[in-house]
Amino acid sequence: xxxxxxxxxxxxxxxxxxxxxxxxxxxxxxxxxxxxxxxxxxxxxxxxxxxxxxxxxxxxxxxxxxxxxxxxxxxxxxxxxxxxxxxxxxxxxxxxxxxxxxxxxxxxxxxxxxxxxxxxxxxxxxxxxxxxxxxxxxxxxxxxxxxxxxxxxxxxxxxxxxxxxxxxxxxxxxxxxxxxxxxxxxxxxxxxxxxxxxxxxxxxxxxxxxxxxxxxxxxxxxxxxxxxxxxxxxxxxxxxxxxxxxxxxxxxxxxxxxxxxxxxxxxxxxxxxxxxxxxxxxxxxxxxxxxxxxxxxxxxxxxxxxxxxxxxxxxxxxxxxxxxxxxxxxxxxxxxxxxxxxxxxxxxxxxxxxxxxxxxx
Length: 361
Prior knowledge:
By secondary structure, the chain is α/β, with parallel strands linked by helices. The protein is 38% helix and 14% strand. It is built from twelve helices and 13 strands. A seven-stranded mixed β-sheet has the order 1-9-8-5-4-2-3, sandwiched between helices. The chain has a two-stranded antiparallel sheet with strand order 6-7. A hairpin with a 2-residue loop joins β6 (163-164) and β7. The mean pLDDT is 97.
């Protein structure tokens, strides 16, 4: 059996996706129209937020709230060293400096104790990353942010419908960023993102900033961006959103099968700290990663590494004088992602477990 790492083509949602595409083509309206407005309302409701603002990418969904909070040159934003580099690049796009606080070695999200140690007079915000679908320790992060009067902007790009102690991620801080990159739990057939917030004034400014800072057509009140979720992707996302809860349930079922089956094997599985985990990815840790990955490939199991290089070690971040984060660096040397997606069969999950179980270093 060959077990693919992911399957991105529409499946049970194919007819609805095709109908959505045809509807947009027939309408002749492709940018900031009724599909975007409807999706924003539907996604906000799904996230338990008052507002959602569709933007061009998950990266922009991080950058624009920082800009809307007037965070920029001379300011610092504390974030995780273990994530896609876009988390930190988005901070730099706002003109601020990313400051890295190391991760909790078990949860693999930013460690609140290291956040507290990284705060300086220039700190304006904390950007926790809800990594792999598991929420960061938001209760502890909230206490720190409140004590120092700094904002929280959540990177929820991998955490659609996840919760933290029962609260929807993205709604704990002042804003939450989501990505609809095709591999995400709710993926478009292209790029896209959204910002959720309960702050009406912030939502209004975000709508202005995403559209060149315009208040009305050709009247630009402030320098904005060109970052608009297009009608086609919004319609596709509307077609897929009703499936998201079922897809999330399936991801959790697969994760439980992995957790049960991988006990006693050569890998360690990061604990589930919150029942709201949505399993965007299923990482395991091993000091013999190269050997395990080759072993699995020989048995037809595709795997990927999320992520092979800690963000502070990326050459693109060199000029930010990044703090080294040893826990994140160790995890980057050991982490390996196993296949997990709603269309993955029980038979395939069993094949993955058996392939891991037969590995000997």
